[in-house]
Write a structure and sequence with these properties.
With 334 residues, this protein is of the alpha+beta class. The protein is 51% helix and 20% strand. It is elongated, with a radius of gyration of 52 Å.
């Protein structure tokens, strides 16, 4: 660490030198040695891993210093401002994190002015959110604006209140929370870019969004209803994905069976047509013979189906005495 010397220390040192009977040469050597020690101690500085050093020489910007041990001009000629460029910084709204031994605690006491936000449908919501950012340009962060952290907080609060104020309370509490946070992120970054202060927003995230305590029970019921609706929609989609493919398969199978049956009937009809045309050709050649053959073929098809057969004479007076009155069955028994 560089040595610190105040004006009182230097006066005491000069008084001690005057009180001792030293020669002017020894006094000059002592003062020169003292200045050399001060210069050596003030010529070294260290930049941490997550920091960037901004070097000012005679109050004017001279350059940046990377992490590590460096030399600089002593006696206040070079001044170093260390900026945490490698760390993601965070601003909390509506709550504060209290660091304790081994665990973190959160408090909301006296922070209702930050968290209570009016929505577009004139309802009030209790919104807790964080803004994470990085310092992209340490020179702009130091010298383009006097109070960068306060500016980021004011802008973030204004943007979030605007985004929430343009939305309905049900959107803020249930379905549109992530989309609103993304919109706030984009708008906040656009404003910071217009200010050109070297800040990059990493994320804007709503930590917790609740209705005010007097109406919290009613809003919880609304939230439960929304979740139940989403669950029923998911179940309906699952049922749809299970039933529709099966119905489509059955419909495709029925269509294929119908197409096969249609082909079978068409082929059978064409065969019958061809057979009829062949019979018609033969009938035209020999009508009597063809008629007789058709008559006999028809009897061959009909007679085996009958249980009893009676053969009458032409006059219809009775049965023929020399023929059996009953036909043989298919098994050969009378």
């Amino acid at each position: 660490m560089p040595a610190r010397f105040s004006g009182d220390n230097l006066q005491n040192l000069a008084r001690n030198l005057r009180s001792h009977p030293l020669s002017p040469r020894l006094r000059f050597a002592a003062v020169a040695g003292l200045l050399l020690v001060i210069g050596l101690f003030s010529s070294f500085y260290k930049v941490a891993t997550e920091e960037t050093g901004v070097i000012l020489r005679f109050g004017r910007f001279s350059g940046f210093a990377e992490p590590g041990l460096h030399l600089k001009l002593p006696f206040g000629i070079d001044r170093i401002h260390k900026v945490q460029t490698g760390r993601v910084l965070k601003e909390e709204f509506g709550f504060r994190t209290l660091q304790t031994k081994g665990r973190s605690l959160y408090t909301k006491q006296a922070l209702e002015d930050e968290s209570l936000t009016l929505t577009g449908d004139l309802n009030v919501s209790d919104v807790e959110w964080i803004v994470q950012y990085q310092i992209a340009d340490p020179y702009k962060y130091l010298f383009r604006i006097s109070q960068p952290e306060a500016t980021i907080r004011d802008l973030a609060e204004a943007v979030v209140r605007k985004v929430v104020g343009n939305s309905k309370v049900t959107e803020v509490l249930t379905t549109e929370r992530a989309m609103l946070a993304d919109a706030a992120h984009r708008e906040l970054q656009e404003i910071l870019n217009s200010y050109d202060i070297g800040i990059r927003i990493v994320t804007v995230k709503f930590q917790d969004v609740n209705p005010p305590d007097p109406v919290k029970a009613a809003f919880n019921e609304v939230n439960e209803a929304e979740q139940q609706k989403e669950s029923l929609i998911f179940q309906a989609r699952e049922q749809y994905n299970r039933e529709v493919p099966r119905a489509r398969g059955e419909a495709r199978r029925t269509i294929q069976e119908a197409e096969g049956y249609a082909v079978e009937r068409i082929n059978k009809a064409r065969g019958e047509t061809r057979r009829f045309l062949d019979l018609l050709t033969e009938y035209r050649k020999a009508p009597q013979v063809t008629r007789q053959r058709l008559y006999l073929e028809t009897l061959e098809q009909i007679l085996p189906r009958l249980e009893e057969i009676y053969i009458m004479d032409r006059a219809g007076t009775g049965t023929l005495p020399l023929l059996p009155l009953r036909s043989e069955t298919k098994g050969g028994q009378p």
